[in-house]
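Reviewers of the previous submission asked for a worked example of the structure-prediction workflow described in the proposal, so we include one complete record here. The input consisted solely of the amino acid sequence. No template or homolog information was supplied to the procedure at any stage.
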Amino acid sequence: MASPRKSERKALLDIGAWFFNVVTSVGIIMVNKALMARYSFTFATSLTGMHFITTTLMTLVFRWLGLIQPSHLPTPEILKFVLFANLSIVGMNVSLMWNSVGFYQIAKLCMIPASCLLEVVFDKVRYSRGTKLSIIVVLIGVAVCTVSDVSVNGKGLMAAIIAVWSTCLQQYYVHFLQKKYALNSFNLLGHTAPFQALSLVLLGPFVDFWLTGKRIDKYDYALPSMFFIALSCIIAVGTNLSQFICIGRFSAVSFQVLGHMKTIFVLILGFLFFGKEGLNLQVVLGMLIAIIGMVWYGNASSKPGGKERRAHYSLPDRSAHKSTTNNNGFITDKLHDDDKV
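From that input alone, the workflow returned the following structure tokens.
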């Protein structure tokens, strides 16, 4: 049993990880929304490639400073991760283009049960009744406040299926690789970011031209738009890192469930900065239901039996990989089982 001091420290680190992820994720969404709405920069895939170039530079600087310790991740594992991650990025963009906004939101909600299925099948996770019901409440709440018009077609459905499963596999793989190879978030990001940057920079312009009919090299790069692009890239470093930290500390399902708090914040900030059109009683009610579900999930899943995991793969000795404050004063995240929710 963890000591009170260790439990308090874990709670503070958990809160810090979630706060870091929520702030950076909401921030990048608002910046990208301004970039695309005000400056017509619609090259989402290429912009993601720029994000990973910036993230790669960050990991190189950290490694040079000694903040990232040497580690090993087999190339086949990296390539599988990059495949899932890039399919997720392209799949979500294509799904949004080919489907109505309502069906796009429904597809995003399907990621929670899909992530649950992956954990049940591969990690032999058992969910208590309270945990299952809390997830259902979150899904209902987010659906109430985000889903409106719903229409679907064959190719849109296929894009949504690819987007949902590739996203869930990518997020599950983050947790799996950190556990199996005793990697912390910085190590994993250092291994995968360069490959994602290279692939997205090469493929991004072609994907964006296919989606928008516009060429990125013909865009008018004025100073204001360049500022927002740079700001987006800087925030993306924190977004990418915080995602790996949160999934590593918790799980893909917890990341999805509590991550819908970002959806609520984005809606609220959108009403504040981009007009109150669409704000009504249904949206407010949906937000309240979702928040109740998230609080319930956090409480239910943390109780004994709320979410039990039986390890099915052998893990390397991680005793030397406890997160501590290193000589440079840099705090890394833990990989202990008792740090998971």
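The longest strand covers residues 126-127. We consider this example representative of the routine output the project will generate in years two and three.
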